[in-house]
Predict the structure.
Amino acid sequence: MFSKEDNEKLCRVGPGTPMGEAFRRLWIPFLLPEELKADGSPLRVRLLGEDLIAFRDTEGKLGLLDRYCPHRRVDLFYGRNEHCGLRCPYHGWKFDTTGRVTEMPAEPENSQMLQDTRIKSYPIIEWGGAIWAYMGDPACKPETPPLMEWATVPDSHRYVTKRLQRTNYAQGVEGGIDSSHVGILHSRLDPEKVELPFKQRQVSPISTVPYLASDTAPKFFVRPTRHGMTIGARRNATDDSYYWRITQFLLPFYTMIAPNKEGGVVMGHSWTPIDDYNCWVFTMTWNSERPLSEDERDNGAVHADTKNDGSYEPLVDASSDYGLDREVQRLHSMTGIHGIGMQDTAVQESMGPIVDRSLENLGSGDAAITRFRRQLLSIANELAETGQVTVANNPDWYKVRSAGVVLPHGVDFQEGAAKYTEVK
Ligand code: FES
Ligand SMILES: [Fe+2]
């Protein structure tokens, strides 16, 4: 059983919490480049439970500052982004992207206060289709973000979106590594066979992978790795072969879904913690070899549609029961909810923002989830005991991808699929 104390440790991400401090040792993707324009509107940001303000200055430099002015605490969202700095509207203090105060127009000239005052600021970079922040001890800053394949391919080879999910990050990760729900939650039903029991009506959610419906009780193999873990879900294919969906969990909150065909696109997520109760679901689709086609950019509605008001809230949410259509649920799909992404969000949000894990009854299909929790607690413990988070300083460990392959019986899945899962 997962204790209430461990649940608190896993889920709390604010300053001074064990997990929040571990996350502060890593670069974290939190914005899309489109959200910040040079001299454009400053953007309210909440990340790891801290209220911040982000802006792009006249020269394109990025800044991430405390949300509140160090003078008398005005919200810098109301500030002016002008001539290489963000100016507080109350008394005009102006801050550059590094947190230096460059002007105090209401103070005497040459005031020592100008040299002595700073605003809290964090390093922030644009890289790999996202904007990343580092919120930890400056002396421990990793040289680069993790070298995940989606972030290292050319822009034309990748498609990245984000949407708001009103749950703790860990609930999202647990959905991302939970292969056993794929053939159930996301299954389509044959509308011609309403009289038959559920199992006999299932149609695979992925037309190129019939095995998802023909074998809905896969056997799971969980292998810890230096980047997190590799999970093999084994289903029967032919008399002498298995179909393996091999997914990756990358510390501390990245997941990768198996591709649906050889040479096809790979998909993944970052479950970026906004605070204890909300996360950004970044969804990435990429192909290492070639630009994406229009069809490939959204593969099975995993990238959910969002409002275009800058909130990145999905078009449907709990207030509309995620658009659940009972007639569609009766005839065509498990949930009656449109799109794989929103089906996941609906069940994950329905547990409440922080699920009470002490009340669960985990089964054999939940082995990856148990391991994920232990790994997360262990990075927090590592930081407390050694002052280090080893994985943060090894961006090369992230050069892996997921795979979907048919392998003969008797072949170890990690060895048999190595040529697909290793990124050169
Ligand atoms: S409160 Fe910001 S300059 Fe006075
Ligand atoms: Fe799912």
User: Anything to note?
Assistant: The first helix runs from residue 4 to 11. The chain has two domains: 33-128, 149-421. The longest strand covers residues 228-238. Residues 175, 181-182, 185-186, 340, 344 surround fe (ii) ion (ligand 2) (CB under 6 Å).
